[in-house]
Amino acid sequence: MVRGSKMWEKLIKQVAGIVVLSTQVWQSASAQSTAPSEKLLMHCQQFQQVYDGISQQVITPDSATRAFQQAMLGLRETVGKDSCQTGTAGTYVYPLRGQLPRYSIGSRGRGYRATGFDLFDSDVRGSHPAQDLFIRDGDQDELDDRLGQPIDVLAFTSGVVVAMETGWGPNSKMRGGNYIWIYDPCLDGLFYYAHNKCVTVVPGQWVRAGEKIGEVGRTGYNAFKERSPTHLHLMFLRITPEGLPKPENTYTWLSGAEVVH
């Protein structure tokens, strides 16, 4: 595992640039909403740094754990449960627009495996603390076979976008591809949406349940391969009082979620 300090410093500078750009995009694209505070963006930047450090294997698991705790405790304090909006708390919208849960949840939810999960060590393999949500895409062109168009990824619950990736390419070994992390203060947890074709939100942006955040795709080291059907990888991590992630199964929530057409 590469852990050179110069590489880590370079990564931090790159991520900082992404966050600055994201702020500019947010301010221009969301003129009708309140722009995120500098403090909120700082915690989003911290989260992005630690997650990219883990993915690119430039930070030790111990260092990643401490940095994650610091970012999450700061994010929790800054956002607070007071930000839970009336009418959105406890609302679940199925993340694939127009798709029915009983037909698109992989293996009827049996694909969830949390044993051995370790967010902070990318060398760990074998666990799958998530649900994979599939679309009909036999020719793997990232379009729904029936509709001939992309399928929108919708926010499962309301929350704030804390990190995202949009620059994945076929030569990258990052498993999540173009991903999105959203913190839900009402549930006090993080939702992770992976393998997106595109991402339409930026760090610091508040989204409501059912709002478009991307499109289903095939990005990611394994998801890009022909053997992998086109799907959205959805993971939920409850944040403990100490600021650490604990995976939970979303199958029951997904099964009863509202379907938006």
Task: Give the tally of β-strands.
Answer: 9
CATH topology of the largest domain: Glucose Permease (Domain IIA)
CATH superfamily of the largest domain, called what? Glucose Permease (Domain IIA)
CATH class of the largest domain: Mainly Beta
Count up the domains. 2
| Low-pLDDT sequence parts | 1-5, 18-32
Second-tier CATH architecture of the largest domain: Distorted Sandwich
Number of helices: 5
Global morphology: globular
What does this structure look like?
- With 261 residues, this protein is of the alpha+beta class.
- It folds into 2 domains: 5-83, no CATH class; 101-255, Glucose Permease (Domain IIA) (Distorted Sandwich), CATH 2.70.70.
- The chain is built from 5 helices and 9 strands; from the N terminus they run H-H-H-H-E-E-E-E-E-E-E-E-E-H.
- It is globular.
- It starts with a helix and ends in a 6-residue tail after the last helix.
Q: Features of this protein?
A:
261 residues; nine-stranded antiparallel sheet
Question: What's this, in brief?
Answer:
The protein is α+β, with helices and mostly antiparallel strands. It has helices spanning 5-29, 38-55, 61-79, 101-104, 251-255; strands spanning 131-134, 152-154, 159-164, 178-184, 189-199, 206-207, 212-216, 231-239, 245-248. Strands 1, 2, 3, 4, 5, 6, 7, 8 and 9 form a nine-stranded antiparallel β-sheet that branches.
List the helices and strands and how they pair.
Elements: H1 5-29, H2 38-55, H3 61-79, H4 101-104, E1 131-134, E2 152-154, E3 159-164, E4 178-184, E5 189-199, E6 206-207, E7 212-216, E8 231-239, E9 245-248, H5 251-255
Helix pairs in contact: 1-2, 2-3
